[in-house]
Each structure stands twice: as C-alpha cells, then as structure tokens.
Recover the amino acids of this structure.
C-alpha cells in the first residue's frame, strides 16, 4: 500500500505504528518510556512513517507515534517539550529558535531528503503548458486577493475563466517555502484560496476542476499523475523546467526545490530507543526516501548526520531563515563547514 495512502488514512488523528507486546502495570510504565513521539510536517510524514514501520520491526518493544500538525504546529510542540522529534519542511525559524531557547530545548538539525514543490493544474487545462515565477506571483501575492480572479487577468492570452486556487495551509512549511520563493517573503499570500494540511484534499480539488491551480510536494504529484498535470517552471527568464528527481538532483528545478528535515531534541537522545531510531533513520533513509518518491541526499549527507549524532552538534545551519534555491551541492557545502 502506498505510504501516501497510509498518510491519508492516518489524518483522522495520529498514526501509531507497531505493537507494544507488553502487559500489566509495570509493562505500561515501560511502554511509556519507550514511546518515541514525532509530529510536524505533512510533507515529511511519509518518510518518517516509513522509517517508523521498519524500525519497529527491528526494535521490539518500541512504539513510534507520528503526528501531522504541520511544520509550525510541530515546532510549537517541540519547543514545549511535548515531542522528541519534529518533522519540518523548512528550517526552524528565528521565533521558533527563541521559543526553544526560552524553554531550554536544544536540538540536532538533520536534512533527510529533498522535495520539489509541484505547481499543478487539471489535465483538461489546454492553455497552460508552463508558468513563470512572475506569473505565480501575480496570482498569489496578497494584493491579488479579490482582484486577480480570472485567468486572462494574469495573461491576456489565457481564457476569460475564473481561477480556482488550492494550496498548503498557513501553518505548513510548504506554504512558508512557496511564499518565500515566489513572493520573496514568507507567509505573504492572498487568503482567498482553498487551504489544507492534507495534500490529498488539494489533489482532489485540482483534479475535479478544469479552472484550478494548486501546489504541493512532488511525491503527491507522482502518486497522482493520472489526475493532474505538473507545470514546468521558469525563473529569471530561464528555461522552463519540469519537477522531477533528475531536475532536483542536478539543481535545474529552481527556486521550488528545498531540503526537508528532522529536528531531534537532545534530552530525548538520553533514551536508547530515541538514539537508535535516529541512527536507524539515517542508515535507512536513502532507500526509504526513494520508496516514498522523494529525492534522497548523497550518502555523505547521511554520514554527516551520523557525525552530528555522535558528536551531539546542536543548533541550525540556516540561522532561522529559508534559503531559497539551495541545491543539494550547496547544502553539502553548508554541512561541511
């Protein structure tokens, strides 16, 4: 069964994988100490869920719960000390760093994959073969709300038809990155669009309406190619490039490629099951990232994460900011500092 289908079913509450195999009051207490709590990005969820499934086969008696409250929601819980690991589809922000510091929460930052934000339309859309970042800005910028409502207002060559917009919710790291990359400022967006933390809701919306346009991660597009059309993107007058594993790896799909992360609370690493889970995550990430249709990092990146774990190198390489257009090669150089 597809990991993304599993994710859709898991949205009812929290996905809990595996079995405790323990009974009685004392066993219950032990189970509590062996529960690893993860929450955050819906984009990172399929990867962490895949790792959790495999880990629980390997580490009997451990239980991994994986929630989906969005990157921002995950960091709120993380900085309050409620979870062990935060899934994040963007780097931790300055305000979140301050909240964690205030609460005495320190962390390890680990990039675990690359994702490409896909801009999609309905397959019956005949007027769009590609789209520029400038045109996306015309459609999505805050001043477009209530004004840019028809396709021909963006480009006179496009039809006089109403635009129906679908995108990630405001607490999503995907929303933060999209707005940063397209508008130049995080969270700068019109508000009159259908927003959801559940990417499957966005898939369904675009697939049902010929006048729709939406954005979400490459993996969700890859799972739904029969229902959607992904648009090649042009930036700064360059060639239009379609989202794909190859265009992410070679750095040509810009500026909508970005690294995605896990953040691990250092206090949680005092518990053997958490340390084992993070170690297992990095040792198996490349295979499992590929299985759920994301782009794995080079082996050296996961080895670097293991070095961070061994040496307990805390903090972030990003200074609380989204760095738009960072390629895998550039990310590796950042990590090498």
């Amino acid at each position: 069964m597809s990991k993304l289908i599993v994710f859709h079913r898991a949205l009812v509450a929290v996905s809990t994988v595996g079995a405790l195999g323990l009974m009685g009051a004392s066993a219950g207490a032990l189970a509590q100490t062996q529960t690893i709590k993860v929450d955050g990005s819906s984009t990172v969820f399929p990867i962490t869920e895949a790792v959790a499934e495999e880990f629980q086969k390997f580490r009997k008696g451990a239980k991994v719960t994986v929630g989906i409250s969005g990157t921002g929601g995950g960091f709120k819980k993380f900085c309050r000390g409620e979870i062990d690991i935060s899934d994040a589809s963007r780097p931790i922000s300055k305000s979140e760093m301050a909240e964690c510091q205030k609460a005495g929460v320190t962390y390890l930052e680990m990039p675990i994959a690359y994702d490409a934000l896909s801009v999609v339309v309905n397959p019956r859309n005949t007027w769009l073969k590609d789209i520029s970042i400038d045109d996306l800005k015309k459609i999505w910028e805050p001043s477009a709300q209530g004004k840019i409502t028809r396709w021909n207002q963006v480009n006179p060559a496009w039809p006089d038809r109403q635009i129906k917009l679908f995108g990630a919710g405001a607490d999503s790291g995907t929303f933060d990155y999209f707005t940063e990359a397209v508008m130049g400022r995080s969270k700068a967006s019109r508000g009159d669009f259908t927003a959801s933390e559940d990417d499957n809701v966005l898939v369904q919306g675009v697939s049902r309406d010929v006048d729709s346009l939406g954005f979400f991660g490459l993996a969700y597009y890859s799972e739904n190619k029969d229902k959607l059309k992904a648009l090649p993107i042009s930036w700064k007058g360059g060639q239009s490039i379609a989202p794909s594993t190859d265009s992410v790896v070679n750095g040509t799909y810009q500026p909508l490629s970005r690294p995605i992360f896990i953040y691990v609370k250092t206090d949680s690493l005092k518990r053997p099951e958490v340390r084992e889970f993070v170690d297992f995550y990095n040792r198996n990430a490349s295979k499992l990232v590929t299985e759920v249709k994301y782009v794995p990092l080079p082996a050296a990146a996961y080895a670097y994460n293991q070095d961070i774990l061994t040496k307990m190198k805390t903090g972030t390489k990003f200074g609380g900011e989204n760095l738009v257009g960072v390629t895998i090669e550039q990310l590796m150089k950042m990590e090498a500092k």
